[in-house]
Write a structure and sequence with these properties.
By secondary structure, this protein is mostly helical. It has ten helices and three strands, in the order ααααααααββαβα. The chain has a domain of 167 residues.
């Protein structure tokens, strides 16, 4: 299936972002797509999934379709976060949107990785477990627990943005906000609004909102690339 490439045979979103970041930052996306997703589709006739009968004929079924859908969903979250990153200056609302999309990609990645390693343990169409059956929530939580809650600093920052009071900021030529891991130090807005020497913490505790999003992007995409290579592609790396 390596004759198929995202640039030529992906859907419009995959074709658009292949050169923008997939090939450079997340090349394992294409390798997994070639190996795992393409065989589930009707390519070269069309990109839709095969019928249940056709899937059974190649030994595939609902669990594989679930994995393929999760894989593509990750890309859609990353694509939105990427678009926000291209702005040299972003505001607090855009930072919130970007962090939500990145942690959304993380959530789905944890679920995919867990399902892939334990395909019989989770129902492909359950969001939350029912009775003895386990679904998406249980898969995600199992991966997080078994792997010491990866990327938790980013997730805590998202929680602060979404579930807490508005993050304090300094608005000037660019919007400055607390860097990741420093957000709790400024839970009291007066730490910024009444700071007698605000210049002393600019560049240390306070950085541009775009920098926060870029750091979260880098950590998230690096994590995905490493985990895809290790757990989904059995250590396969791209040619250099």
């Amino acid at each position: 299936m390596s004759d198929y490439t995202l640039a030529q045979h992906g859907d419009p979103v995959e074709r658009h972002y292949e050169s923008l970041f997939i090939s450079r930052e997340f090349p394992s996306y294409q390798r997994f797509w070639q190996r795992f997703v393409v065989p589930l589709t009707n390519r070269p006739i069309d990109i839709r999934f095969k019928t249940p009968d056709d899937l059974r004929a190649i030994g595939k079924g609902d669990r594989e379709i679930c994995i393929a859908q999760l894989h593509y969903s990750i890309l859609r979250h990353l694509a939105r976060a990427f678009d926000l990153r291209v702005h040299h200056q972003i505001d607090l609302d855009q930072l919130t949107d970007g962090m939500v999309r990145l942690t959304g990609a993380q959530d789905i990645a944890f679920e995919l990785l867990q399902r892939f390693g334990s395909p019989q343990s989770y129902d492909p169409w359950l969001a939350v477990g029912s009775g003895k059956a386990k679904g998406s929530k249980e898969a995600r939580q199992s991966w997080q627990k078994e792997h010491s809650y990866p990327l938790q600093d980013i997730r805590d920052y998202r929680n602060h943005l979404v579930h807490g009071r508005i993050l304090p900021s300094v608005i000037g030529p660019s919007v400055l906000v607390p860097r990741i891991t420093k957000e709790n130090d400024y839970f009291d807005w007066r730490r910024i609004t009444h700071h007698s020497n605000i210049q002393a913490v600019i560049g240390s505790d306070l950085i541009e909102a775009s920098q926060v999003l870029n750091q979260a992007w880098r950590s998230t995409v690096d994590y995905l690339e490493v985990q895809w290579t290790k757990f989904l592609l059995n250590g396969e790396v791209s040619p250099t």
